[in-house]
Amino acid sequence: MTTARLSRRRLGIACTAAAALLTFTAPLQAATPVPGRTATAAELKDATLGYRADGRADGTVTGATAAPPYKKVWSRDFGTVVSAPVAVGDKVYAVVNADDGTEGGPRMMLVGLAAATGKNLWPAVPLEQNEPQAGVAYGGGLLYTQTSRGTIAAWDPATGKRKWRVTLDSASMQYPPVWYDGLLYLQDGRGTALALRADTGARVWSAPLAEYGWAPTVVDASGVWIGFDGIAWHHLALRTGAELHRFEVPNLSGSYGNPVALGAGAAWMRSGDSDDETVTAYSRKTGAALRKLPADATPAFGPGRVYVAHRGRVKALSTTTYKAAWTYVSSRKAATVRLVAGGFVYVEDADGRLVVLDEKTGRTAWSYRRYPAPHPTANVVAEDDWRGFTVPGIATARGRLFVPAADGTLIAFRKA
């Protein structure tokens, strides 16, 4: 264990499950569809709704139609960096740092583009505070952004106009909120989980957490999951925030905010300790630990498969036997799976390439160099999603692939 992880918990983060919860009971459905309340047809299939594909963060894009080999159709330079894109229908959205290196700090903007041409749907919108940790997600027909100081906002994807804004007290956030069935779920990085009405931003409930830190929120029908590496995690009820299950290692703190993923009937939590490079699967029904596997990147999931990476070896494991169907090996001994879509596995290789593998055989179907190859002696890691200006990722919708690349460039591809 590292010294940071053995440090005493910060004063005031220990809270009891009996803490008061703010509960909202008004109906979320209406006769006339209201943006934010109900998923649109376009986002239910062949769409990438945000960081790690959707609210489950499982990397899966259901009904994806994009397939390699690809050819480039457009490229846009946005300044310094591009977030994990959102791709829905014939539109693509992202948060970008538009600083060109002359402004002395980040200039975070929300952009909306026509997927076919890369042309602006509306003028780029500046995000408040220009904090470097910012991202975007989609749900119920609206876009949602966050800044590291806790400004949450909803936006009309057709016009770029803001629908509502909420600022949290003393927040420290890295990951965008998650939409599910009319509510927006997040945690403030200061020991509190929250649910907001997606149509208005009104608070529905809040609940105490055992840890502080940049940890993403993931959601499915079983509830809300927030994990702090191998130190602690919470499983909360969707509508009330009541605690369903909880895991906590006594006298440990210093969580690193590794992503959680939901798949194969489990919530997968990856350890951030260099002495314990593993991912543990916990039952979504009981909270019990089911299995532990070597891993230095967050798993992704496909039909009957979990893709687990450790020191550059990406294994396609059966979710029945947990035996490997095939293995991909990175020359730099570091890789992570970003998407599983349309029968293909999209691997971010630390050598600077995006490598697309056939889901059945593991053979390379296509590759593209996103970044220059790192120096042979450079220290590279498989996954570093809790650092940087935005959370990374790629996206697909309607036969197109959207890939952030070097120097703030977003590139669109379609089948060659």
How would you portray this structure in words?
It is a single chain. With 416 residues, this protein is mainly β. 1% of the residues lie in helices and 43% in strands. It has one helix at 3-6, and strands at residues 60-61, 70-77, 81-82, 86-88, 91-97, 108-114, 125-126, 134-139, 142-147, 151-155, 162-167, 178-180, 183-187, 192-197, 203-208, 217-220, 223-228, 232-236, 243-248, 260-263, 266-270, 278-283, 289-294, 300-302, 305-310, 313-318, 324-329, 335-341, 344-349, 353-358, 364-369, 395-397, 400-405, 409-415. The strands form eight sheets. A five-stranded mixed β-sheet has the order 1-28-29-30-31, with no helix packed on it. Strands 3, 4, 5, 6 and 7 form a five-stranded antiparallel β-sheet that branches.
Quick synopsis:
Helices cover 1% and strands 43% of the residues.
Question: What characteristics describe this protein?
Answer:
mainly beta, 1 helix, 416 residues, five-stranded antiparallel β-sheet, disordered N terminus, five-stranded mixed β-sheet
Task: Describe the protein's topology.
Blueprint (H helix, E strand, L loop, with lengths): L2 H4 L53 E2 L8 E8 L3 E2 L3 E3 L2 E7 L10 E7 L10 E2 L7 E6 L2 E6 L3 E5 L6 E6 L10 E3 L2 E5 L4 E6 L5 E6 L8 E4 L2 E6 L3 E5 L6 E6 L11 E4 L2 E5 L7 E6 L5 E6 L5 E3 L2 E6 L2 E6 L5 E6 L5 E7 L2 E6 L3 E6 L5 E6 L25 E3 L2 E6 L3 E7 L1
Parallel strand pairs: 1-28
Antiparallel strand pairs: 2-34, 3-5, 4-5, 5-6, 6-7, 8-9, 9-10, 10-11, 12-13, 13-14, 14-15, 16-17, 17-18, 18-19, 20-21, 21-22, 22-23, 24-25, 25-26, 26-27, 28-29, 29-30, 30-31, 32-33, 33-34
